[in-house]
Design goal:
Largest sheet: 6 strands, antiparallel
Strand content: over 45%
Shape: elongated
Distance between the termini: 55 Å
Number of strands: 6
Number of helices: 0
């Protein structure tokens, strides 16, 4: 799955156990500009470095996996948790920001004045 948005906050690396670390990234997602959503992504282990060069306000695209798991407390009540686990982050140009055209306009090479055509056909 992928989503585009703006970096809102980059969390610090958290060393959860001796062998497990994670890091959060909060992305502003505005499918409807009137109702901006703040989506939390996490990176774990060696992927915590994915968020190193991100700056709040930058436009990015996050590729992620959706994970879910149950947890049952001592009273037997089960709660379900979801995680958005980032595996790639790309910086993107903001929409309408003078991007280069996707194509090169065609050139009419048959109307170049002064060129002698020595082809036999």
């Amino acid at each position: 799955m992928e989503i585009k948005g703006k970096v809102h906050e980059v969390g610090a690396v958290q060393q959860v156990t001796d062998s497990f670390k994670k890091r959060d990234l909060i992305v502003q997602y505005a499918e409807n500009p009137q109702f901006v959503e703040y989506i939390r992504f996490e990176a774990t282990q060696d992927r915590v470095n994915l968020f190193d060069n991100l700056v709040p306000g930058e436009d990015i695209e996050v590729s992620f996996n959706l994970r879910g798991r149950p947890w049952t407390n001592k009273e037997g009540v089960t709660t379900y948790f979801n995680s958005l686990v980032a595996w790639r982050v790309n910086k993107v140009a903001p929409e309408g920001a003078g991007a280069a055209p996707q194509y090169v306009p065609p050139v009419d090479i048959s109307s170049a004045p002064g060129d002698d055509d020595d082809l036999p056909f």
